Amino acid sequence: MARQSHIKLEELAEPLEEARLAFEKLDGLLGYRLRRAQASMHRDYMATVAGLDLTQKQTATLWLVHANPGVSQGSVAAALGMDRATMMSIVDRLEDRSLVIRKRSVTDRRRQELHLTPGGQDILRKVKARIAKHEERFKSLFTPQELELLLAALQKIQNA
Question: Do 117 and 106 contact (CB within 8 A), yes or no?
Fold first, then answer.
């Protein structure tokens, strides 16, 4: 069994050497701050799910297929903001690992329906438990009011 490792939030702080650089307002750019925050969360996510061999996109795909049995690849791709080719590649990898299966729709022969296998359900249970801890580490940085405002602000950006 792979050893589970977690990055502590203190370890996600900027290196001291970098802090001495003149940022010339780079650190005031919204896109820069969002990218740095996303990178910190991504590093922690990868450490959190170490040993499960799942990317964030693969996890999101499993999650949506579980919540929507028989969903089409195209619908999952649209929900996650991905192109069809990327989604096909993700589903191919998940299918190669026997985590999902494709079934031809009985109502529309052109449509591929996605379903989790028992192995896919098992790994999704494991990853959800780990993600809950990952989310709590970051959510604990904020008061409930701050978190509500942050989520609303991020939704505004997403909808722009």
Answer: no
CA distances (Å), 20 to each of 15, 17, 31, 32, in order?
9, 6, 21, 17
Residue 70: left (phi > 0), alpha (psi -120 to 50), or beta? left
pTM of the model: 0.79
Q: Is the pLDDT of residue 67 over 80?
A: yes
Residue 88 backbone phi and psi in degrees, to 5: -60, -40
The 10s digit of each residue's pLDDT in 76-122 is: 999 999 999 999 999 999 999 999 999 988 888 888 899 999 999 99
Task: Determine contact, residues 72/111, Cβ cutoff 8 Å.
Answer: yes
Q: What is the CATH number of domain 49-159?
A: 1.10.10.10
Q: Domains of the chain: which residue ranges?
A: 11-48, 49-159
